[in-house]
Description:
alpha/beta; Rossmann fold; 6-stranded parallel beta sheet; 14 strands; 13% strand
Amino acid sequence: MKIAVVGTGYVGLVTGTCFAEVGLNVVCIDIDQKKIENLKNGILPIYEPGLDEMVKRNHSKGRLNFSTNLSESIQGCEAVFIAVGTPPDEDGSADLKYVLGVATEIGLNMNHYMVVVTKSTVPVGTAKKVKKALTDAIAMRNISMDFDVASNPEFLKEGAAIEDFMKPDRIVIGIESERAEEVMSRLYKPFLLNGHPCIFMDIPSAEMTKYAANSMLATKISFMNDIANLCEIMGADVNAVRKGIGSDSRIGHKFIYPGIGYGGSCFPKDVKALIKTADENGYTMQVLKAVESVNDAQKARMYHKLKMHFGSLSGKRIALWGLSFKPKTDDMREAPSLVLIDQLLAEGATVNAYDPVAMHEAERILGSRIDYAKEQYDVLEGADALVVVTEWPEFRSPDFELIASKLKQKALFDGRNIYEPEEMKAKGFHYECIGREIIH
């Protein structure tokens, strides 16, 4: 079975590679010639654990190929996945120009029946627009051509994307015909052998499922951050509260860890897009607007703690551990670190940062606005305080004596609650985290 995946970003590359891993003949298409040449040479545009080895292995076996030629690449394909970007417009709506542009190009070049699948996260109603773009393009050729559209949203966690794709919780597919269902069933059969459910539904429901899922997870995060902030005021311990409510099977333990806000390419964009979709249809998503508001405020939480502690941040040097929005990725889109850095620099502080993976991405975004340390403990030299921004595993059990010896003041601000207040008290640190006792 041959398929094509248009777009070699995070979703497209993971999708194409994992399909190749189970034996399909896959070609990944992108307009960026340099990116395609790099992929042919085993150089990936993203960091995702285990992906580089899988790309190299399947490319060497001839199952995974890369091309800039869509017309040539889609010939003989039973399905073509559209996995290009849908960046948010200024008003929060998803920009569909790349998705619809690809659909038009497919319609201008297809010469047999295929299923055109939207893999990009797109608003409800996008499949209708994709179908019209395909129909209009085919009509321009004065020919008749059968095709189907389908919606197959991704549910990949950055840092665990391969595991999520190869062993999915569920596969959601929106279709309009039995013929499309048959193609998609054959395509996903290798992933269903261990009993993972494949849920077929109408296309608008599939499109909505993606936004609803991410918005629910974002809601859990903002709710717990709101509770954590109240815990600080009331003298409660949010970790104890989290354990207490997480033991309720209706709530569960996942996504109720307090911190300094969610970021990344999905949650912020999808929450905004769903709010915008509702607004356009005369409905107000009151809960999601509150979720977004809480998250925006939470990203400033560490700044306010630093400001309260030092009074003035002018001339202070602040060390940051972590820049990516979460561990096991170099993705800094909507990262809390960026908000904190902007606020610190605006107050006249200097920033020295270290991240195990995201240093090159940080330099691309921030340039020379901050300093960059080559090693974890180098970032502490001459710093007035250390702020833990991303909960990378190597930060969990650090050498506290070394930290204390390098800092001007034994001030540690933990944005991810990975240390215990009593332990930090015993070590003589001024310690602040989220939703727990401040240690002086």
